[in-house]
Amino acid sequence: MGAAWRRTLISATAIALVGLTAGCGASTTTDANSGNKDVAIGGEHFTTADEETAKFGSDAEAGQFPRTITHANGTTTLESKPQRVVVLDTGELDAVISLGITPVGIPSTEGSSPIPGYLADKVKDAKTIGTIQELNLESIAALKPDLIIGSQLRADKLYSQLNNIAPTVFSIRPGFPWKENFLLAGEALGEETKAVETLNAYQDKATALGNDIEGDPEISLLRFMPEKIRLYANKSLIGVILKDAGLKRPDNQNIDDLAAEISAENLTDADSDWIFYTSYGTPEATGEKAALEGPLWKKLKAVQNDQAFRVNDDVWFLGLGPTGASQILDDLRGYLIK
């Protein structure tokens, strides 16, 4: 199943922190500048990441090995079905778990939980490989992986070093191309059929949610982060999910970008019929606590109507895969359908 098949599918579907391995030193820990700025927010290749990722894949029959995968950094040949997989971000973590595979190596995040809480019980035996921003190559090599899955956004400059450790497959970036990234992971793992079934089930669930909601409520997504406040837009995980369910967005969030940034003084820009909010980090550190205790929060229509809810950042903004997306749909159903 090759790239043409992948494009057809995407169109049809609308589509326990463990200590570092002993002996790892600073010389094998990368810095936070290992990614590719061209595919970051505002970069030249940001908005086309979904359509470009849809071109990647393999021409091998489903489940058959050896196979050669075309991906963001070229081609990678896998002689047999991978058994020891290392993932470099939360999206890849969600993807491989959704395909029934437990990775041997995972990164930690700088959010409120080092490992996304909704997946933590499934990776309690996995070893940490540093953080998403600072990978430890020695830790990765010590795990003797037979496949590494990551992205250009996070680790483009490390690709050659990673590929020398084990066959490495890169997407362009995590986030809004999560469905395309999931299909690419499925092909690398020889789980194309399961990937298709999973995305079809997701879209059925999203469509059912949209059909069951009365009226046309407008949904605002507010995330407090250290030194910034974001309103998440169409080029985000949750933005894609809301679009797939046919749910309305405020004009300032109905844009082809990851997010729009606002200041604490402009908090009223977050208003809508419903507000779902969270923090990347603790509420005290991100400004969430101060904002919710301030005068502007009480002026918001959604707050006055008891339709502003704090959600799980691990799922809504770090999930980046079908398991997280399915949980978000469940959350939305619980909030929006009485």
TrEMBL record:
Q: Which UniProt keywords apply?
A: Signal, Transport
Asked whether the keyword Signal is assigned, the reply is yes
UniProt xrefs under InterPro entries: ABC_transptr_periplasmic_BD (IPR002491), Bact_iron-sidero_bind (IPR051313)
Q: Which domain of life is it from?
A: Bacteria
Instruction: List GO terms (cellular component aspect).
Output: outer membrane-bounded periplasmic space
Q: Where is the signal peptide?
A: 1-26
Which GO biological process entries does UniProt record here? iron coordination entity transport
Q: Which subcellular locations apply to this protein? A: Cell envelope
Tell me which SUPFAM superfamilies the record gives.
Helical backbone' metal receptor
Q: What PROSITE patterns does this protein map onto? A: FE_B12_PBP (PS50983), PROKAR_LIPOPROTEIN (PS51257)
Q: Does the keyword section mention Ion transport? A: no
**Fe/B12 periplasmic-binding domain: from which residue to which, for each copy?**
84-338
One Pfam match: Peripla_BP_2
Return the similarity comment.
Answer: Belongs to the bacterial solute-binding protein 8 family.
Identify this protein by name.
Answer: Iron-siderophore ABC transporter substrate-binding protein
